[in-house]
Predict the 3D structure of the following.
Amino acid sequence: MKHKGPILTLAAGLVLAAVLMVLNLRATDASQRNAAGDQQPDAPAATATAQPGQAEPTNAPPTKAPPTAAAAAPVTYAGRVKGGAATIAIVVKEAKAVAYLCDGNRTEAWLQGTARNGELILTGSGNARLTGSVAKGVAAGSVTASGRRFTFSVKVVKPPSGLYRATNQALDAVGGWVVFENDNGQVEQVGVMNIEGDPQPADPLDLNNSTTTVDGTTITAGPVDPSAGL
Amino acid sequence: MSYEFGTDPATLAPQPPAAPVAAPPSGGAAKLLVPLAIGGAVAVALGVYGRLHEPTNIAVNIAGFSGPLAAKAWLTTGAATFAVVQLVSALVMYGKVPGIAAPSWIGALHRWSGRIAFLLAVPVAIHCLYAVGFQIYEPRVLVHSLLGCFFFGAFTVKMLSLSRKGLPGWVLPVVGGLVFTGLVGLWVTSSLWFFTTFGIKF
């Protein structure tokens, strides 16, 4: 112990660092496999990199996953909930769905789940729940978040409308924007930025290059790919 | 500080502060070269890795905290708290606190508070390096990145110096002081910033 103590201390730190690195590498591997399309709904996902929902408005939501064909393009439904107090966007790809509800102020919820046979069943943190259906270019249903219940009936949207999500680990920030065409035919966006668990009105998203700012830092938002998860 | 050296604390503690460790008059400082070289290599390696490694934005996290930032803020606060124990116990060991004679357990306290502080800091550093990387986008972040590399380099120098005989007496207090300063600087640029920006939360 006499002369080895400090060396052992260093070695212990090195071993601890090595163990943590191995765990990190495994976590990252899992998320990359997940992002690559592996069917692992629970693994954490890296930020999505796919293009925004490109589906034609006439497309019925895909209810069957083509086994070999190239991955189907996601379909996005977006608009205001009934009463207009909040907005919602739902992205459906094959049998998976991601939804985001936000009011542009402090209410928001990210939900994940399934879209099988036209039936939406999604859940999110804080007991957020969404049930509904998709058919003929319309998603309709109800969503409960932050103890409030909203009902919605929103249509398929085309880019630049859609669901955008921006994450920044350094700032511990996650932002979401629902972008949709309002009744006047104008593209409108409603977003909430959650910084360290504290939701607040998001800075506007620049739809030309999908960037926004958080505390003066420019970060890039991306579309959400349900098969990659959140 | 000298007790890691292996000297019996009971005999060393009451020694006059000027010469806690008997050092040969010449060539002593040269023995610091190898620890300095290794410590410098550690600091540079951390910085290079942090700069070159693509930040993953994802890493294993500690359960029970609201997020990785909160977890790191508290781990760093824990490490800084033990660092204060380090400073006080070192002052007592060197007889710098008037009226307090070093108790027999002060060496053990110093060693173990240091080990705990170090081991608390390691997961924070791994998360920083792996998920965030060496960043320079604002002064606080740049200073924090530099201090992080410096701290682990200086700590390595300190540990390697402890196991070398014949170093001048000033080496351990100086290196220890640098390690302490580095950790406090890390705390100020991370945890203090976090708590003042987001409030004190877990």
Q: What stands out?
A: Chain A has one helix and 15 strands. Chain A has two domains: 1-46, 75-223.
